[in-house]
Amino acid sequence: MADITLRNAASIEQIQHRVAVLQEALPYIKQFYGSTIVIKYGGAAMTSPELKASFARDVALLKLVGMNPIVVHGGGSDISRYSDRLGLDVRFVDGLRVTDAQTMELAKMVLVGKVNKEIVGQLTLAGVASVGLAGDDGGLIRAEKVDDGSADLGHVGRVTAIDPKVLDRLGDEFVPVVASVGVGSGGESYNINADTVAAALGKAVHAERVIFLTDVEGLLADVEVPSSLISRTDLATIEKMLEQGASSGMIPKLQAVRDLLRGGVPAAYIIDGRMPHSVLIELLTEAGVGTMITR
Questions:
Q1: Which domain holds residue 75?
Q2: 0.70 cut: is pTM over it?
Q3: DSSP labels for 139-207?
């Protein structure tokens, strides 16, 4: 007697739900097809194997449906962990890591030699080809020392120029994975906040969207009330938040959003990297999951 498989009503409902999800995503896939999407990857999203794999699958899906994602990553928790092991001082000023010569050497080894290659490996497992890059690859990220007069941050840099030529040479075949390490005019390395790099890169490649993964739900109207998530706002609100004084950890992100919107990028998102598939939910659904900021 031939084997017979009966399809139950529950499985049909599940299939119909999946089809509905695909139908909801279709207009956004069409809207962003062929567009460059810069994703700043860091924080809690990099801490667990499950979230790492989830992020890689999200990026792979964006690539396979015709978008051109670029991943920009930090790795602050890894740098801090190895600094503790080596007895190096860990100190921050306005959200920026104070980076002496030893810490800079460690940061470059961790960001370029460890974290970058782990992300490339995860993307390979997810089914897309990727290439790891840092600032000195093709002169991608030119930088200079941050000197605001208030504190000596050491080898902390600011972006002076982005040369996307190496990205152009890669074409559409690979997903670039960019470590937030810049190079100075004398060949010296600088540790740069990954939010800042993502914003500068987004402007340089004329990205359609820039996504910032964070350890919070998004922007809150009241930082003491998690339910006060702002689902959508604009550049004027971001500028007002910076004028009134934001939390130190959020300052680099808000500055980055301000700069990229002023630089012509149509919109940015600040979303919760602790939530699996938050990139897809924000980019390809009507409801979203974090905060969308437009010009």
A1: 33-294
A2: yes
A3: G-EEEEE---SS---BSBEEEEEE-THHHHHHTTSSEEEEESEEE-TTS-EEE--HHHHHHHHHHHTT-
